[in-house]
Amino acid sequence: MSATQIAGRMAGVDAGAPIRQSSLWQDAWRRYVRNRGAVAAGGIFLLIVAWCIVAPLVSTHDPNHVDFANAYQGPSWSHPFGTDQFGRDLFTRAALGGRISIGIGFGATLAILGIGVVYGALSGFVGGKLDNGLMRFLDALYGLPYLPFAILALAIVGTVDFWTMVVALSIASWFITARVVRGQIITLKENDYVRAAKAVGVRWYAILGRHLLPNTLGVLVITIFLELPGVILGEAFLSFLGLGINPPDASWGSMAQDGRDAYRAHPHIIIIPSLAIATLVLCANFIADGLRDALDPRTKET
Amino acid sequence: MAAYIIRRLVWTVPVVLLVIFMTFMLMKQIEGNPFRQTERAVPAAVQMNLERKFSLDKPWYVQYANYVKGVATGDLGPSLVLRDRTVNDVVKEQFPRSIELGLLAFGWAVLLGVPAGVLAALKPNSRFDYGAMFFSNVGFALPNFLVATLLIYFVSVKWGLLPTSGWTTWEHKILPSFTLGLVPMAYFARLVRGTMLETLQQDYVRTAKAKGLRWRRIVTVHVLRNSLIPVVTAAAPLLGYIITGSFIVENIFAVPGIGRYYVTAVSARDYSVVMGLTVLLSIIVIAANLVVDILYTILDPRTREART
């Protein structure tokens, strides 16, 4: 290519319509914003999180204050969500419960992601016999119910706090994430820029850290919101079975359990935290759908 | 194909051994054993005899080997809490009810979920489609303890149509199985809709249309048959859902099945029952996976070359 040609090209770029430069994330954001359902879900999700953070700070009610004179009250101005069997204000408690439910949800999701990335990247990057073995193992375990193992893990530790709950919920839930990461790594490995990097002698950890893992980020973001609903429901199930976080702390699941015996006369105690879980899970599902369409347009559902 | 099936079969053995091992090691982490630190002080000699009877005095690998031998011969060992009863007795008594509950739930899902998905796909973006997908989204999101409570509150308490709990007559079985079937139902509706829409765009459907084949025949012969193959693969994750859900549903509706008993056994510290049930459930899921993978290879020839 001669100097004049290059100059001509550059001039052409300058003179013609500007080529829109946009990164993957800017493109994704544009696509996400166009999806009204996903935007609404994201907004509600953020609102719930914000409410959980702010409400206990500004509330005038002590969430653990027992007041039998005011037990089992329905929703009112001073107690928007009513009170429970001990007369505790459910509005404040629901916000605090949300902190725990959502906190455990994200904690366990990140743990699942961590295990999944290590296992999947190892399998996909090393390949060969190791990959074959690790994947046959996953094939066989696909769909293994996490609940019995979570219950076992909680039975072992005895006292249930934030971290034991995170471990219990992630111990048998990472199989799908590992498979997804492995699939990504396998596909990315075949790209020319990876081959080129290998050819010029880039070390394996640099290839993994600079070329492969950053490119799985989009899928990982989707995975966060795909895994979150299951984990939040799992925590709620465990709490509902009486294996939840120890009182006086409460998650939405253990609040629902509190309302279990009084559901005939005072259904609001079980309905409010359950609906909070349902709303959050519904939003997370919509966000996951929106993110998938935005970050991975090839797999767009019709 | 035979090579794939054999390889798949062979791999199942170490996986089962590993799952038993993991469960076994988890159980070992629990402090002490059921014969120690109880309210009633047991004389040292009695305790030693008890430990010998249950091989608790042997090193862990001997116990593990014994246990694996037991599992292989279908003997899950004695219960540590219930006298004169084995884990097998518990399984024999409780398991059929759980299987029945699971099958009924699955029945609801196929009965309502699959047609909903088919109809939604035949009229995409119609009112019915939106309704079905809305229902599917909500079905995924509602915690089953809320569904169960609402059903009991309205159907049983307010309207007095069905009993609140128990597992004797067919009337007792409607609410629990419906509650448990809700997530699979939502899953089927969405999955079938997706695969149907995909199949409807295939060239052979267009060819069939161009040939002048009746629409009804195209749908039943060409579209439905091919759209339902991916549903087979959904069986394994759905089994996981049903097992997980049964823990809650059996608990709320007082169904005397495995899921409810599991929680009872954990709080009673009946470790051999807990371990036996965990191993049993895991083996069932692993076996279901195996069957699904093999079925899939047979049903969809395209996967034969792709999978190694």
Could you name the key traits of this structure?
heterodimer; A: 302 residues; mainly alpha; MetI-like fold; 13 helices; elongated; B: 308 residues; 14 helices; 77% helix; flat
**Main sheet record of chain A:** none
**Whole-number radius of gyration of chain A?**
25 Å
Number of strands of chain B: 0
Oligomer: heterodimer
Element-by-element helix/strand order of chain B: HHHHHHHHHHHHHH
Mean pLDDT of chain B: 83
Helix content of chain B: over 70%
Q: Taking all residues together, what is the mean pLDDT of chain A?
A: 83
Radius of gyration of chain B: 24 Å
* Percentage of residues in helical conformation of chain A: 55-70%
Secondary-structure class of chain B: mainly alpha
The coarse overall form of chain B would be: flat
Let me know the number of strands of chain A. 0
Task: Give a written overview of the molecule.
The complex is a heterodimer of chains A (302) and B (308). Chain A has 302 residues and is mostly helical. Chain A has a single domain (25-60, 89-297), classed as MetI-like (MetI-like fold, Orthogonal Bundle), CATH 1.10.3720. In chain A, 70% of the residues lie in helices and 0% in strands. Chain A has 13 helices and no strands. Chain B is an all-alpha fold. In chain B, 77% of the residues lie in helices and 0% in strands. Chain B contains 14 helices and no strands. Chain B has helices at residues 2-29, 44-53, 60-72, 87-122, 127-141, 144-158, 170-200, 203-210, 215-227, 229-233, 235-252, 258-267, 271-299, 302-306. The mean pLDDT of chain B is 83. The chains are: A mainly alpha (302), B mainly alpha (308).
